[in-house]
Amino acid sequence: MNALNEIEKKLKQVYERHPDVLAKEFVTRDEITEFSDAIRLAMPVVAELLLNSDLTENQFFASGEDVTVVSHLRYLPPYLHSHSFFELVAVKEGICRNYICGNVVELQKGDICMIAPGTEHALGVYSDTAVVMNILIRTSTFANTFRSLLVNRDVLAAFFSHALFEEKSSSYLIFRTQTDQVIQKFLGFLETESENEERYKRRMMNVLFHTLIIMILRKHDSNVLFPPSREQKDDAELVEMMNYIQSHYTDLNLALLADHCGYSERHTSRLIKEFTGMSFSDLIRNLKIHRAAELLSNPELSLSAVLDTAGYTDMSSFYRAFKKEYGVTPIQYRDRMIDSYGRV
User: Fold this and answer.
1) What is the mean pLDDT of residues 46-71?
2) Cβ(344)–Cβ(338) under 8 Å?
3) 8 vs 4, 29, 45, CA distance in Å?
4) How many angstroms separate the CA atoms of 104 and 97, rounded?
């Protein structure tokens, strides 16, 4: 168990004397100022953070640094703020409360909350035994890493990417990793690496972060919670719909999907657009063309086998779609892949 540091001990004393004030869902800059004046307590170590509701990268990242780790102070007032970088809130022990996008979310051990830039939130940690990590990532680094993993790969990838990058009302995601020891180990690796000054630290932090994201997506893409939509759809239903599309896109149409989900076609189409940023037809088109590109990297598959597996029935339309997407014909694409990887 991590013992309280001296700052946390002082904050806890304030919390115990004024639990009704510090345990609010969130506090604003003005409230913090009034509260500090009322109890005659200046908190110089955290004052800059508490009195700045719009945090920038320069306040947290050293020159050349892309990823950094900050332990969240226990008993720190839940000040409402946003920042210009991405943040992953990882609960290693205990619980904490996150006020975000107008929702109060209780985060438990194993939960990882991904928060996009510009998203107002306030975190409250009120336990000696709680351990909460804030992993901060420069926007450019997160975008490059996350987009390379997500863009045009599968339905859930589109879901995540849209939520984090394009839909401001869906600017956070919560993964329930529970007791996953691999995830916990990588969180520990990040924390340890952030504290040393050995060579290649920046590169190592980026690699560890990238790997952490891959492990989360690989093992927990079905254990994700999304912000409530305007229609308050259940997360499990939405993920089930996305997984169904992923499994049946080669011969799926909107009518079949709507019938499977028990919705009208119009309602189904609206849900897909809201949560992926694409129409149903564009989503299916992307899934097919990128699956075809993946299959083309295998020189043992004939072109007709690639078309059949990816769900295409017409060679000429496939050629047109592929060249429009990749700028080369399927054969040229395959030749490049063979040259790049030395396959025969």
Assistant:
1) 68
2) yes
3) 6, 20, 11
4) 7
Higher pLDDT residue, 168 or 221? 221
Structure tokens at 184: 């916990």
Other CB atoms within 10 Å distance of the CB of residue 121: 23
Condensed to tens digits (0 to 9), the pLDDT of residues 162-197 reads 666 665 545 788 999 988 999 999 999 999 999 988
- Residue 235 has φ and ψ, to the nearest 5°, of -55, -45
Which helix or strand (DSSP H or E) is residue 142 part of? helix 139-150
Where helices occur in 83-234 by DSSP H, the ranges are 139-150, 155-165, 181-195, 201-220
Statement: 280-344 belongs to CATH 1.10.10.60: yes
Model confidence at 245, in pLDDT bands (50, 70, 90)?
confident
pLDDT above 70 covers what percent of the chain? 78
* The amino acid at 247: S
- Domain over 6-225 is classified CATH 2.60.120.280: yes
